[in-house]
Design a protein that fits this description.
Chain lengths: 417, 263
């Protein structure tokens, strides 16, 4: 009980911290319109995993683990009730239905085990390219493996718990898999088995609670955030890049269509740090599963440039965490002479993007790495005036003669000569 | 060079008191780039042959602002956009057709917020519309049975979900469509977008257009069709180094139709 309350307490603390950190983003978002379409997107993409299956192997395995996770968690209800009230398998009186449920939990546990082991093989033995890019060294690699170990442990504990539960085995109702494990323990006395069963039960539930609190520190957070993220994800054509309102105001003033208001001087254009990004972009960063599908289709990355859209998301999350810790420590943000732009993400990365939208299209949970890249380019150009020279020439041409090349606008019809 | 293309500016139309059915937005590449000018002419031939009343803006046209926007210069983009919108609205333009997917995307998706609301077509969409309405026809022709590959421009495909219009036209000329491995929503960029066209690329193993060209080389067709003047340039450059027997020709869909029908 105490363990339960502490871990839930921690969990709530983490959620609050998450909420606060996401809200350090001051950047503008588009209005959240068309709720019905957004609900549909969430149901289809997050709940229905529609984009996962575009890669059949990973998609199917993920689907199994995902379904297994949801289904086996039903059993958690019983475990919690048993734990709190000191009962034992309180629902077992439900008879056939109980047997059916536990039976399917056991089958799923085995399927999940197999899938997770294949995942581990893909990461550690086959070493698929997208899992060994530079940004996947160190913690991200460990995190990915830890999650798999956690899942192997939890599933094994669940099966062992059932196998060593003599009463449950004697009921012979739903022990489809565990009845095969039970014989391995046949030499043990009833008492030892009971002790074993209890310890498996305890490690299982404590493991789950630890896992719950591990989420915040891990890419596994996506199991929660994929839902809001697909809900709030863009619903317009992905080719549309937002028009900055702050710029519209200024341009209107310049063109004599509006008058200057007092506070129009202190707007910052584009993003140089996480505080300049929008809450949605920060939510994107926390949701990222680090799967690297985006990076594996990025033309810049494929041709060996430094840019990796996954790294953009991971850097953003790391920087939010750093700013969050800074706020925890000082009560407010005290400048640390660091910025997302420069200290995490380099100009070289930003200028390599072709805005091809492959990353946006590919992300299974509607993350938009391109929007962050564009906001940072905007900062480089409009605040720092530090575009590459050739781009400055191009922009000068547009400004002077209405084309990216130095041709006279008066000659625009000459193609017919 | 003499040619017999019928072209009028919107201004000339309005002086005669007529408003043409569409505005053909030629775009910067289509106006100034030697390769792209041929695409412009090919599309005009199609419009002429279907007797479509269309106008161009001529010296009143200016860059949509796309390369500036994607380079991060939102100021310059919105200046361009608002100036263009003033021009378009003063001519009371309702329908725009363009041969450039970048112009298409910007006019269609980014101008409405700023007060520019038009019905915008990519030329491959417009030609399909003409076919459906029975105002233009394509039957067989010189490409019958030949293999043609199609490269999806990012700003037509992924950006605007248009994969069918160009493919349908390739089928109409009775050619056999030979898809690249990475096609439709998974198509690889040619490397020109996001203002990359105007700068050297960052350091890497290879160039994006060479990477795409390698993929094209593996495909057995000798013709690569596309629907974007920038893709056209990038792929033509990328395929330059191909051995003599592997040479491919990069053509716009409009050019294919003109050749197929011998317009
Ligand atoms: S939009 Fe930019 S970051 Fe995303 S895949 Fe294309 S080049 Fe890479
Ligand atoms: S942004 Fe999306 S596709 Fe890229 S690593 Fe994160 S979850 Fe995967």
């Amino acid at each position: 009980m105490l363990i339960l309350i502490t871990s839930l307490g921690f969990f709530i603390r983490n959620i609050n911290r998450l909420r606060r950190n996401i809200n350090i983003g001051n950047g503008q978002t588009e209005p959240i319109t068309n709720k019905p379409e957004r609900w549909r997107n969430m149901l289809r993409i997050a709940l229905g995993q529609s984009k996962m299956v575009t890669r059949p192997i990973a998609g199917t395995l993920h689907l199994i683990v995902y379904l297994g996770f949801i289904i086996i968690n039903i059993e958690l209800i019983e475990i919690l009730i048993d734990g709190i009230f000191g009962t034992h398998r309180i629902f077992s009186s439900a008879g056939v239905l109980y047997g059916f449920l536990i039976g399917s939990f056991e089958v799923f546990a085995v399927l999940v085990l197999i899938s997770v082991i294949i995942f581990w093989i893909r990461r550690n033995i086959i070493r698929i390219k997208r899992f060994r890019e530079v940004e996947m060294k160190g913690w991200p690699k460990l995190d990915a493996d830890l999650i798999l170990y956690f899942e192997i442990l939890l599933m094994s504990l669940f099966l062992l718990m059932n196998a060593t539960d003599v009463e449950f085995q004697n009921m012979n109702n739903g022990n489809i898999i565990s009845s095969f494990i039970y014989p391995f323990f046949s030499d043990y006395s009833i008492d030892t088995l009971h002790v074993l069963e209890r310890s498996f039960w305890w490690t299982h539930i404590v493991g789950i609670l630890i896992f719950l609190n591990y989420l915040y520190y891990s890419k596994h957070l996506h199991i929660i955030l994929a839902f809001p993220n697909t809900f709030y994800g863009s619903i317009s054509k992905i080719g549309r890049l937002n028009n900055m309102k702050s710029v519209t105001n200024e341009v209107n003033i310049m063109m004599g269509k509006a008058v200057e208001s007092e506070n129009s001087n202190d707007v910052k254009f584009g993003a140089s740090d996480v505080t300049d990004l929008s809450w949605l972009q920060l939510l994107n960063a926390y949701s990222c599963t680090e799967c690297g599908r985006c990076t594996s289709v990025c033309p810049a990355n494929i041709t060996g440039k430094k840019l990796s859209p996954r790294k953009i998301m991971m850097d953003t999350r790391d920087r939010i965490e750093e700013v969050g810790k800074n706020i925890d420590k000082h009560g407010e943000f005290i400048s640390d002479d660091k910025k997302l732009l420069g200290d995490y993400i380099s100009r070289e990365e930003l200028w390599a993007c072709t805005s091809c939208n492959a990353c946006v299209e590919e992300c299974p949970i509607s993350i938009d790495p391109l929007s962050i890249i564009m906001d940072m380019r905007r900062n480089l150009v409009m605040e720092e005036s530090s575009a590459p020279n050739e781009l400055n020439n191009m922009m000068n041409n547009i400004e002077n003669n209405g084309a990216p090349w130095p041709y006279n606008q008066q000659d625009r019809l000459n193609w017919n000569e | 060079m003499m040619n017999n293309l019928k072209i009028k500016t919107i201004e000339e139309f309005l002086n005669e008191g007529i408003s043409p059915e569409i505005l053909f937005w030629v775009g910067c590449a289509g106006s100034f780039d030697d390769r792209a000018k041929k695409i412009t002419k090919a599309f005009v031939k199609i419009l002429n042959s279907a007797n479509i009343s269309f106008g161009v803006l001529g010296k009143d046209e200016s860059c949509t602002g796309d390369p500036a926007k994607r380079a991060g210069n939102e100021f310059l983009f919105q200046m361009q956009a608002m100036t263009n919108i003033e021009v378009l609205n003063s001519f009371d333009i309702k329908t725009i057709v363009t041969t450039c997917p970048h112009c298409f995307n910007t006019l269609k998706n980014e101008y409405p917020d700023l007060g520019g609301n038009y019905k915008v077509y990519h030329h491959t969409q417009f030609i399909n519309k003409l076919l459906e309405e029975g105002r233009f026809s394509i039957e067989g022709g010189s490409y019958k049975g030949k293999k043609i590959t199609y490269h999806d421009p990012c700003f037509l495909g992924r950006a605007n979900n248009e994969y069918n219009a160009p493919r349908n036209l390739i089928k109409k000329i009775d050619a056999e469509l030979a898809e690249l491995k990475r096609c439709k929503s998974k198509a690889l960029c040619c490397g020109a977008g996001g203002a990359q066209m105007f700068k050297e690329s960052e350091k890497g193993k290879t160039e994006i257009n060479l990477e795409r060209a390698e993929e094209i080389k593996k495909n057995t067709s000798k013709i690569v069709a596309t629907g974007c003047p920038f893709c056209n340039t990038m792929l033509t450059d990328g395929a330059k180094s191909f051995e003599a027997d592997k040479q491919v020709e990069v053509l716009d869909i409009a050019e294919l139709i003109v050749r197929a029908k011998d317009l």
